[in-house]
Each structure stands twice: as structure tokens, then as C-alpha cells.
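Re: folding output
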Amino acid sequence: MKIFITGATGFIGSHLAQRLAAEGHQLRCLARSTSRTENLRALGAEIITADLTDRETLCDAMRGCDWVFHLANLYAMWHPRPEEFWQTNVEGTRCVMEAALEAGVAKVVYVSTVAVLGKPAGRPFDEDSPAGPRQFSTYGRSKAEGDQVVWELYRTRGLPVVTLYPGIVLGPGDDKPSGIYIQDLIRGRVPTPIFRRSVETYTSVEDVVEAAIEAAKQPDTVGKRYLIGGERLNGMDYAREICDVAGVRVPWMRLPDFVVIAAAYWFTLCSNLTQTPPPWGLSVDAAWTLYNGFDFDGSRAARELGFSYTPVREALSEAVAWYRKRWEEEEDSPRRHGVHGEESLEKERRTS
């Protein structure tokens, strides 16, 4: 199979590319000129350097491809230029889908996010539950608009699409908000577990990859939507699981939700003034998203696509091991080279 991937340099996309290459598929991967593509090149992937809104280049690159996996998006709970959410998550998605139609690909797998659904009534909700009245972040709102674009093209032009809506994705390589929280918690940088009663649904990055590939392979998935998530944990149990896996103590402080939300408003105000990310990633968008939670039943995907969810503990163990290995390498690097390492802040674009 010839396969085109957007977001292959991101968290979920990189895992997907590795798996598809291991299965012997030919890969074409879209990347920006500033992206690091050496790992993709090592897999034998052909790199297409272009912007997500370059429809002509996208269409040319997709010609001859059997499947398209669209994972590229701007994912952040705070961003100094909010308009970029719409440029990437709405207009970028529109260009990818229209290019896929023009190129005549057989199947498009769109990896979206459960954040587009807001807070549906009922707990846990599923694919048949009506979406909630609103989303809780700029990211979620932009992804919801992109989702509407996708399904309008499905209804009006026959776009052969299937969409996945993962919950919180865990695994090696995650440096987005969920991964930052894990790292800060086990390094003692988080003073308190947050939103201890709010329930989230978790999944392994390998589960998302498995679901995406099976959604592409199976002939009857066009027009379907799948929630991707297995175990459901409240914030306190999740923090305990992280700390237990890492062998560290759970922070002793307990703050009520209203204090955490108030802090998020203050942090966001400071971030908007200084144009720097908030401490611990605790923005207003992050606070309201986590407070409302994503408590859903993802069993339909496992049943219809034929896979089993990885236990949260196993996914966390793999993630923590990866973080610790990287920390050791970062600590060793200045000693080898005799210089102090510097960190650079890149745009928060991912896949999953």
C-alpha cells in the first residue's frame, strides 16, 4: 500500500509511521521545513515539504496513494496566537480532505479528539450521545469546526472518511499537556493532584495506532465515528497510578477545584501579558477541560475494529521509562560536550 500521512513527526503520527513501515507499506509524509524528519527518512519515507494549506502540493502528493491518515493539528491549551488554531485545525483540515477527494484516495482516516464533543449528557457517553452544548478550549472549538468540515464533505461529496476521537493518549514521546503533567508530577514540580474527582478516559498511543490501521483496512468503516479510550480514572486515582509506577510519593497538598480554576485564570492572564506558557500548563482552557472531564465508553471501537485496550498502568510504565531515559541523556550531554544545554520552544503541533 502507498500511504500519505500528515502529522507523522508528532506523538501519535510517529508511532503510526513506525508501525506502517514495519508492515512494509510505502510512506509519504507531509512535513514543514522546520520539522525534524531524520526518523521518518530512516523508515524509508518520502518527505513532502509543504504547508498544511498548500492544497495543490497535497493533491499531487496524494495521487497514487491508497490511504490518507490525517493527524496534523495545532494542539495546545494556551497559545500566543489563537488564530493559528483555525488556520491549522479548520482550514488545514479542509485542504487535506479536498485534496484527498481530488486525488481519489480510497480511505481517509482522520484522527481527531474527544474534545470536539464538549460534555455530552450522561456518564459514560458513547458515539450515539449528542455532543454537549459547547467545547471548553480554543483547541476544542477549532477541532469541532474542522470536524464539521469533514462530515459536510462526507455528506455532500462522498469523502471516504472514518474518524477517531481519542481520549487522553499515553505513551513514549508525549511532550504535550498530558505528557508534561506526568513529567512534572514525578519530578515533584506539581504541588497537588488536580481535579481529583473529574473522570477522564485514557488510551495507549499504540491503541490509537491499532485503531487507525484497522479503520483503514476494514471496508465497512467509511462514515463511522469511533471513540478511542479504555480505562476511566478520576484525577486522584490517575495521580496515584503515575506516582506508583514512577516510585515517587503523591503530592500531599489537596486544593479544591475552585482554587485551581482561580489559579488558572491568573496564570492565563500572566501568560497573555508575557507571551509565555503558564506554569504546569494550567491555563483557563486546560482547567475547564479537565474539570469537565471526558468520561466515555470506547468499547465499540475495540469490538468493531478488533483490538484490546492497553491497561493504563502498562502505558504509563512505557511513558515513564522513556522520559527517564531522555532525562539521563539530557544530563549526560552537557558533561560530554562541556556546554550547557539550551531548550527551544517550538509550535505545539502534533499528530494525535
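--- second protein (sequence, then structure) ---
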Amino acid sequence: MLIGPVLVFHHMKCIRTDPNCFLALADALGQDVGPVGKPTATHCSKRFWLAPMTDFLLAALPIATILFLMIKANWGAARAGAAAWFVTVAIAMIAFGAPTDMLIIAQAKGVMLALYILYIVWAALILYFAAEEAGAIKTIGRAIRQLTDDRPLQLLILGYVFATFLQGVAGFGVPIAVIAPLLLGMGFSPVIAVAAPMIGHSWSVLFGNMATSFEALIGVTGIPGTELTHYSAILLGLSGFTCGAAVLWLDGGFRTVRRRIVPLVLIAGVMGVVQYLMANYGVWTLGGLTAGIAGIVTSIIVTRFWKPHPDDVAETTEDDHHHMPLIEALTPYLVFMVIVGIATFIPPVEDFLSGLRLTFDFPAVSTDLGWNIDAESAKPIAIFGHPGALLLYTAAISFAFFKIRGRYDNGIARRIWQRTVKSGLPTSIGMVPVIGLAIIMDHAGMTYALAEGGAALFSGSFAIAYPVVAPAIGALGAFMTGSTNNSNVVFGMFQRHTAELSGISTALVLAAQATGASLGSMLAPSKILVGCSTVGLSGKEGPVLSVVLKTGVLLTALCGFMALGLLLIAMIGG
């Protein structure tokens, strides 16, 4: 018998605090799960008897507020985020029973997470302006134009392939912070410059950056990674193709995609296959990195044979009067990759850099209606081993290198700092309320209420179609928490229980969750703020959000139907 996944949501509070409550729920629904004891009714959430759709509509108000203000009213992220924060606090207190101490703790966690991200933002800005003032950005753009005259293919190589590679080595918003200004320097509009890497890197988040998000899913669900890699790598590979197509679509629509279908299939196919092989041979920690390297090599080969359509030849621009060899221009990014490699793959160095950490311990809190949040520590900031620190080391070395090479005028350090502050300050102000409202929603149970409403559409006899909505729940988690990792932690066990009660493949549902969470990273407001700060769009993030939101919804929906297709194939074959 298929049990509607919506029923699981009503008991998620007790499942999180007492695993036996899941077994009691299954027993009540007539599922034979073996001999277990029944918990008392007080273990379960008091919201069980309230209409889930009412909670869904109330929980959706903060999201609707920030989307409306940014997209329709053209408010900046800082202003819209502050307004949505007040809406979130009011709903959390009145409708979801969040006490004052929970709100304070949730916002404190938001500040810590904002500090973690802003460390990257400010360091990336310093590195970018150090390279830009030396003329390196113009030189890199010129080199890519020499690699291929095909403007959309240039966008694909940087916004999709190079973004995949950077996600493999760094993550945490670094691909957007590095690539957006490069695309801007090549003549792409600020919106495309930010949206392309936002979309292009998202498919590789799960197995990128040492597969930390995938490891989190394994840890929270208790399912071995070897059981999850098959479906996860397939869905991610297919989604990688759609992400590449979406990047091309940004610069000319469907016609551009149709004209580049051959290089797109070759590049996306190679990256997807390499990631699949790495993941299924147990080396998933290097899946994103090796896929990115394979994509770069394939791109170089493809551009040697690909001839652009006359309508898509990139315009040539005059060279900067400071002619710079390509290898010199690439020095900051080569140094960055070396530093990341040393800090990541040499254990003594990693241990040394991670020795000094900034973190705080937060107590357990609960709402008046019974939603519990366990005691936990804030995400630690390794002062000397954080991705932001690695960017700062790179910036310092690059600055000294360009200074020795005579690429700077007098007063350059002051000018770099002034440009950094001008771009970074608005982003910093806007990030605190945006991240804060996301964590408040999670702690008050509002994020789960949103997922509950989505799953309600697939209850009863429609439960077999649940894989369609599973990626959307993963994407929702990434959007609200700003992290694929956090989405897997928040929704991983729920997805497992839903699959088991519905009688469908647990591995497939968890793969759909993980893929949706990976794609949902393109929607993270914190990453949008990071990208916009590097291209002069601070306070004008609405157009970027509009583009990535439409794209993210479409790609997540496609992923859901891919997951359903895999389920049907497995059922027919089985």
C-alpha cells in the first residue's frame, strides 16, 4: 500500500527528536516495520491537527515578500531582506509559537553564517580588484576570445565549465565571485555575468568541494554512499546538461542553444561521465574537481574544431596599453589553485591552518507548539584555513607579484581598498537579514511547513509520483538555508522516511533530494549578493534573482521528471 508522504510531515518533529516515533507512525498507518515500542502522544507535534495548507501559506509569506520587493518593486536585497525579516519574525511568533530566545539564537546563528560567507566576499573582492587594476582581467578576456571567437561558447566555457572546476576546488560562492567580474570584463551584461556562473556551477555542488554536501546526506540518513552514487550521479549528469543549456540560453535564447548543441553535448557528456565514474568507484570527494578538469580539456579540444556562426562572433576590443602575457594574467588564479591544493590535500598543512577556529555553542530551543532544535555549534570559521583566508593569501602574493612586475601606479593599495569597500559594504549589510530570516524560518518549523504543502499534492494514490516533488523540496532547502549541505541535513531524513512509507526507491528519492539541493544553490540569496557585489549591482539584485529564479524552477522541475522516469524504468526492469 502506498502511503501519502504528506502524513510524514505532521510527525517530523517527533521523528527528529525520537526515531521510535517514526515506527509508531508507520504502525498506525498499517505498515509492517517490525516489533517496536510505541511512544506517548506527547512526543508528537501539537500542529498535527492544524490544516497543513494554512501553515504552508503563512510560511510562504516571507518568501513572497522578498521576491515581490526585489523583482516587482525593484528594491535591493538589503532593503527587501530587512522587510521580509520583520514579516518572518511576526509570523514565527504569532503562528508558529517561536519564543524570543529562539529568535535571538536563530539570528545569532545567521550572523555567524554571514561572517563565514562575507570572509569570502571581501577576500574575493580584494583579489579581483588587485588583478583588475594590473590589467589581468582584460588579458584573460582577450585570451578566451582568441581561444574561440564564438561569444556564446566563451560564456559556456567560463560560466559553466570553469565554474564547475572552481566549485570542485573551493565552493562557498567562490565560482560566482571569481567568474562574474571576468565575464563583465569580456563585455557581457552585469546580469548575465552573475547569472551564468550561478546557474553553471549549481550542478556540481553535491560532489564539489570534497563532496561535503554528499557526506552530510550520508551522515544524516545513515545510507551508505555506495548506495546513493548511482542515481545521484545520473541525475546530476543530466542536470549538468540542462545547466549548460541554460547558460547558453542567457545569450540568445533557444537559437543559441540549438547552434551549440554539439559542443554542449560533448562538454556536458564528458563532465557527467567523469563525475559518474569517480562517484561510483568510491572517489566521490574528487567528483566535481575531476569533472571540471575534464571539461576544461574537452573545451580546449572542441574550440580547435568549432567554427562560430557569423552572427555570434564576439566583438574585438582594443588591447590595454599595458600588454601582459597570458601566463602572467593567470598567475593569481594559478596561485589560488596551488594554495587550495596544498591546504586541502596535505594533512599537516590543513591541520595547522585549521587550528584556530571561531565558533559559538548554541543551546537547544523549542517553539511553544513543540518544534525542537537541538543544541549545536555554529559553523566554525578557521581563521587561517577558511576559503576567504586562502583568497587573501592569493591576493597578497598577486599584489606583490604585479608590484614587482611594474603593473601598478602610486596609491594602488588605497584605490583597491576603496573599491573593495564600495562593493562589499552594501552586500554585508544586506546579507545579515537575508540569512537571518532563513534560519528563523527553519528554527520555527516554517521551512518544513513549506515542504509539507508541496508533498500534500502527492499523497494517497499519487505517492508513486513523489520523485517529481523530491528535488523541489531539496531546492527549497537550499534556497532558504543558502546551502546544499544544510538542505540535505534538514530534509535528508524526511526524504528517507517518505520513500520508505511510500514503497519507492529510497536511493532514488535521496538522489532527487541531493540533486534538487545542488540545483537550488543557484537560488541562494547570499550567492546572488556575492555575485552582484563584484559587478556593480549592489542594491540592484532584483533582475539577477528574476533570471535565476525562473531558470532554477524550470531545471528543478525537469530534474523531478527525470527522477520519475528513472523510477518507472527501474519498475519496468525490475
